[in-house]
Fold:
Amino acid sequence: MHVTGTVPQSAPAPRETPAAPTPAEDPTSNNGRHARRFGLPVATALVMGNIIGGGIFLLPASVAPYGTISLVAFGVLTVGAIALALVFGRLAERDPRTGGPYVYAREAFGDFAGFLAAWAYWITTWVSNAALAVAAVGYLDVLIPVNGHRWSACLAALTLQWLPALANFAGTRYVGAVQLVSTVLKFVPLLLVAIGGLFFFDPRNLGPFHAGGGSAMGAVSACAAMLLFSYLGVESAAVSAGEVKNARRNVGRATVIGTTGAALVYLLGTLSVFGTVTHDHLVKSTAPFSDAVNAMFGGTWGGWAVALAALVSMTGCLNGWTLLSAQTPYAAAKDGLFPAAFARRRRGVPTVGVGVTVVLASLLTVYNYASGSPRVFEILVLVTTFTATVPYLLATAAQIFHLVSGRRELVDRARLVRDAVITAVAAAFSMWLVAGAGYAAVYQGVLFLFAGIIVYAVLAARRQRTA
Structure:
């Protein structure tokens, strides 16, 4: 979506320095023992926990049919994701308020661009939560059989969504604690395979470099389309900047450290699985990390261990995404660009946003099981890949705007060239995300965005009538 050249009259005037959060925006304004700001470790865990969900446990088998050329796609995507992380870090250093891409887009281009960023990001979060919960049921079935009956699986998926929501209702203190613990626990089995697997690495298991037909570039693009969803979440610390201590310094650091750490786990984990499980078996595998552990140590206990790790990983991911799903609407509601109810906070958490998000995700989950078609969620996951690119592109465009406009108070001349190169890479990465989502996802995603335009028209009319 392009918003260039359409800056509403209500756009905020340029500021020489970013405004400090007002008391209503300050997450400590609801001061209590349940509202607490995140330090660098928790902010980093939020980024890593949101990037690394349950997808890592299926990725090696998903890309195995393309051969080891998929590692090249991993490398290219990693460069783009880190570039995007650096852009978010620079933008958060300039304006460390809760809202992330919404704040940056509105500051640069006005209310309409800000609303589009907030609306698209909100769609991404609650659809992603529903998809994560349904995927988690597959791992839960390894430990406790629930997939035998459709509605027992549905109940399990709803439970997995509401438990993180309850942690959010309890306050930011508990959100940070759950996020930190789940991130640490998930990395124990992941690092076991990612690092331990290198000691059992057998090059004969790798299979061909380019297993599929067609050109090498086509194979890289096809792999990238499957891997793109795995890198969503690089903006996590920026979106929750208002809850981060010393945000100007820590948001950028947490974003880069978290994204780099997640990328290393992805790359090493996939490489280790490729080297410990034969290619022919990996192509057909439904639990590649379990197969890798079984190949490394023998026995069949790997399936249980990895299933438990996947559940911990997905629960932590749902915990973080539930918080993010409420933060952007909260920031937009404070500016009158979302319904006012989304601006209510309790114990540092926008409780209305959390409640609406978990209800929508629950309804979508029930619809998925009622329809009986797995294709519903496959399409919706790709839709989230597209909708996430809208705030990514708008945030990147905001950085380009600041660099090209050359406003002295917003641009560090000493870092101008470096920032320009990084921003160009991030912009290309965001466009690649759009292309990788596919025609069907872009089509459905645009329909979601157009529905948002109607909502914006109603809200804008109300603001004007009130004025």
Remarks:
- The radius of gyration is 22 Å.
